[in-house]
Amino acid sequence: MLTGEIRSQIDAIWNAFWSGGISNPLEVMEQITYLLFLRRLDDLHTLEENKSTRLNKPMERRIFPEGRDAKGRDYNDLRWSRFKHFAPAEMFTVVGEHVFPFLRTMGGDGSTYAHHMKDARFTIPTPALLAKVVDMLDHIPMEDRDTKGDLYEYMLSKIAAAGQNGQFRTPRHIIRLMVELTAPTAKDVICDPASGTCGFLVAAGEYLREKHPEILRDAEAREHFHHGMFHGYDFDNTMLRIGSMNLALHGVDNPDIRYKDSLAQDHAGDEEKYSLILANPPFAGSLDYENTAKDLLDIVKTKKTELLFLALFLRLLKPGGRAAVIVPDGVLFGSSKAHKELRRLLVEEQKLDAVVSLPSGVFKPYAGVSTAILLFTKTNSGGTGHVWFYDMQADGWSLDDKRQPLLPEDKLGFATLHILSAEEHAKNNLPDVLVRWGLRDTSERQRARTEQSFCVPKADIAANGYDLSINRYKEVVHEAVEHLPPKEILAKLARLEDEIQAGMKALEGMLG
Q: Cβ neighbours of residue 302 under 8 Å, at least 6 residues apart?
């Protein structure tokens, strides 16, 4: 849990970057990420040193070599624990002229993150700012996994607050909802093909630590957790660095986070590899056929990115694998041949489990577009019986540009400590979504289509051209309103008119 003091320190550093000439929040995040990585490298080196001393043996693995670099600087000066004590000017020289060239050429700690360091750039503009940032980061207790994870998440929220480059974060409570709905297990192989800051993968990892703590006690399961479970693609090198660091700080040692243009590159080697896909990909218009992966066009011939991403999810999932993905509403009712064909594929050839309609302000202030969560299982042999629909009206936060919390903190999210009253439910539907999802094969089948959730048989969906919009199936009850007969209304109007005329005459009399 972050204290108010740490938050204030981070805010101060962020403001210092801003006034120091770096106004791009992604660049700020990237520079801080480099420094966190340097501190991590030093910690690993210290660990090896202590082990060597304890066993009275030479060090098995050195992060920082012995001797001096090409410019004659002792490699030990490149360590965090050393340069943090230097005067600002000297620290600036060491980090800019020695540490970063070293980072670009080193093998690092063998992690995914080290792999993304090859084009690291040092852009902190002044010695004073560097010294301030190093001092702040040095005071944060990085041995505590929760603190450093929360710290990084807090900094990432600042990228979201800036909302630049079209890269914004999916609200964490929506991510957590999708993770809860899919309930990852210790054996899952999880992928986000548009991973960004790796928020979905981090949330899945946290869920597993909380619900399946045994995963870290069993050697085989632990190995899978750290080296085989988490996979993410992105085509932005900055996001790859930030995303892999986010996972590292949340205690995942070596996730597979790599450069890949998910819609443009073929997926040989990745097809049918994953058992769970969690994603909110960017839906940015259309692509040319020439720039689109041929194996996706084999599934559905379209230029629309939202449909291509759905085809991609089907391609990547192994049979039996499941997905929770966010799609714009157009996917649910679009009338093009490709729209209909993809929906038919989901309903007839795979198993469509649910459509959770999200409130239209959930991505404000960046986008007001209506969206929904699709939940499906890849079977290649159908299996859709009833599709569960939920009409989410509130997520606990105001749906305007400010996105202010509507309830106390302990009643937001899943509100595990409280049962929400009807009034509170009207402000936060998340706990109800989760409870009703668990009953989708039993009591939910009995609900009327006038309620907030209900089930629709596959035959109805097929008869409606595979339209998946909840409004197609929801029944609205109109309340009967009794009006007075027209003659009575006219008589009332005439009486009112007389009163007005009488009032005006009285007023004229008063004026003489």
A: 308, 311, 336, 338, 342
